[in-house]
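Quick one, probably user error.
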């Protein structure tokens, strides 16, 4: 998969624009990358439910869990599915609604200055080789395109919302990921 970033869009990704986005505050640099995990229904992979959720099109009667998330407006910049396919929901220049109440190095409102990447997965099982390859490729492009972002500003959702969030979870291989960025 050949990827590049042009006009805040990841060329080579599927593009499905989410309504759950808005402008970043004026004069805000993109500095932080937040890694998440998501599966809908929980623990199940390969459905269209994540895309539907990020676009406010999820049928909340289709699964008992969906009633618990009815009315939530959530998005991420990117979703990487189990096969490594990437979908972009929000241009990188805009604020996606992925971090919620959050703080990094004493600075709140992480959505203002971060990019959110959702990995299709759970806290309870490893991510796939294809996902790591796609995540590494996308991350290298983001680091090159947004100079205020750096490898030491890549965190998990659990790092910026401790006690509230656990993702990307204990099966996310941070060592492998960080080593892949260095090569």
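Nope, works fine. Designed sequence:
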């Amino acid at each position: 998969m050949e990827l590049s970033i042009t006009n805040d869009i990841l060329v080579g990704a599927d593009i499905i624009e989410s309504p759950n986005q808005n402008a970043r505050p004026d004069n805000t640099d993109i500095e932080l990358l937040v890694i998440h995990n998501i599966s809908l229904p929980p623990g199940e992979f390969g459905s269209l439910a994540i895309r539907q959720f990020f676009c406010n099109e999820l049928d909340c009667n289709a699964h008992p869990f969906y009633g618990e998330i009815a009315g939530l407006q959530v998005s991420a910049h990117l979703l990487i599915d189990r096969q490594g396919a990437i979908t972009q929901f929000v241009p990188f220049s805009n604020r996606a609604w992925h971090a919620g109440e959050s703080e990094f190095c004493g600075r709140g409102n992480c959505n203002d200055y971060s990019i959110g990447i959702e990995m299709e997965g759970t806290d309870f099982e490893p991510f796939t080789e294809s996902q790591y390859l796609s995540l590494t490729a996308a991350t290298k492009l983001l680091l090159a395109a947004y100079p205020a972002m750096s490898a030491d500003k890549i965190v998990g959702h659990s790092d910026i919302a401790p006690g509230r969030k656990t993702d990307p979870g204990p099966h996310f291989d941070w060592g492998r990921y960080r080593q892949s960025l260095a090569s």
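The mean pLDDT is 97.
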